[in-house]
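#structure-requests
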Amino acid sequence: MKIGVVPKIIEKYSKQYEYTIEFKLIEFLKKVFKNSEIYFLTEKKKIKLNLIVLSGGNDIYKVSKLQKDKLRYEIDKYYINQYLGKIPIIGICYGAQILAFKSKNILYRSNLHVGSHLLYFSSFLNKKKINVLSHHKYVFKNLLNFEIFAKADDGSIEGFFEKRRRFCGIIWHPERQKNIKLHKKLFIKIYEIINFSLRKRKKIKN
């Protein structure tokens, strides 16, 4: 299985930009998808992949106005436009936000999601309630044309599928959680749901 990961872009020194991917994320993906190959998507080019993961770490450029976020957005936009509807796309934290934001949904500022908070799943995960660590200062209160499967204790949206199930967003970081078995199960289920939906759509077209 070939997995493409769009990395975070940081400004280490003034106008010196670097790509970085958290080791825990790579470790997590390799545990979820055995014998997988991980590709860092640092430039705009076509490559044969089975899954794209938009990692966390940046902020929405229209909100931050920072050059590093603009550079990151350009890479995200390229891979979303190239692969949407062809292979599963999963966004984590910022990656989830950019997927929903591109669909014309509104972000709201909140400081309640930096640290530990409760997460409530729908029947999608047997209505489980778990404690998670988050590191984002913006939330979605409502999402148009999305299926919601997880919410935080303040009612903001934490997990969603696009209505046609071509992509999924997870606002928290599954790779940083203690209950790793549950998150492996969740990630596999998300991938299988999107993959099944895309195959079904292709059969209908043919």
